[in-house]
Each structure stands twice: as structure tokens, then as C-alpha cells.
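Hi L.,

As promised, Corrinoid adenosyltransferase:
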Amino acid sequence: MKLYTKTGDKGKTSLMGGRVSKDDLRVEAYGTIDELNSFIGKAVTELDSQKFKDILADLETIQNELFDCGGDLANVMKERKYKLQEASIEVLEKRIDALTDEVPPLKRFILPGGTPAAATLHIARTVTRRAERQVVSLMNAEEDVPAIVQKYLNRLSDYFFAVARAVNFRLGVSDVEYIRSGDVFK
């Protein structure tokens, strides 16, 4: 099997049920999700398999769910069955709560950083937010998009914030506080 098909040489790509320009907002959205998945893969390589066994399991699940999100966004067929389920959001919420309970309470805004893995997870957080904005743009353009994808991405960015803090905490590295911030969280 060849990796190249030449079908995209004129700036078009295939969706499930049609072809669109490679700069179509739908393609941008699932392309950003693919970028996000790559940053998660990078974070996985930066985490110790014993100390972060629970987080690594989370990240593997999330990577699979992101493939589901991308597939759901790429599906423009008249009859659709989406893969992403509400249960995925509920699991994220439980993990966010558990990870938040593990770390000291926030008092100030924090900057991305600390350990290499935490910094990569903060990149994942910001890429997630961009993907969410693109999905919202699709929804605002009255494209047929499963709303659960936007909701999942919203919760996922919160997860990445919580997990980045937990990674730093487990490694004994303090969060990097924004120095001009007063105590904003009480």
C-alpha cells in the first residue's frame, strides 16, 4: 500500500460523504485535533510509566477519543452514527476532580511550565482550546456538527490544566505563578 494517493494534489480532501477544500473549517478543526493528539503523544514520552500510570492510562483513552472526535467531525453523510459518547465527559470530570484534590489549591494565575511534561500538557491545553473555537465556528456557521465534540473539548482543556499541575506536584516542582497576579482564587 502506498502512503500517497495524489487525490489531494489540487487542494481537496475527502470526508466521509464528500470532498472539500483542504482549508475548509471542518478540516481545520479535525486537523487541530490531530495536532493535539501529537502533543499528547509527546507528553506520554516525557512521563515515567510507574509514577504516572494513571495519567498515562488517561492519555491513551483521550487519544482514542480524539480520533473519535475527528471522525465525527469528518462525517458528513446523511445517515450518521457518532462515536463520542457522554460517558467520556463524565470520566474526564471525575479525573479533573481527583487531580485537583491532589494538588495545593490555586491562589494565583499560573504560567505554563514547570517540568517538560507539564509544559507539553499546557501546550495540549491551548491546542484543545483552539480546536474548540474552530468547532464553535463550525456550529455558528450552521454546519451539522455533533455538539458533544465541543463539550468534550471544553472539558478536555480543563483536564489538561489539572493534569499539568498534578505532574508538577508529583515531581516536586512548584507551579510557575504569574508574578503580577494577586490572589484571585479563594
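The radius of gyration is 18 Å.

Thanks again for sending the construct details.

K.
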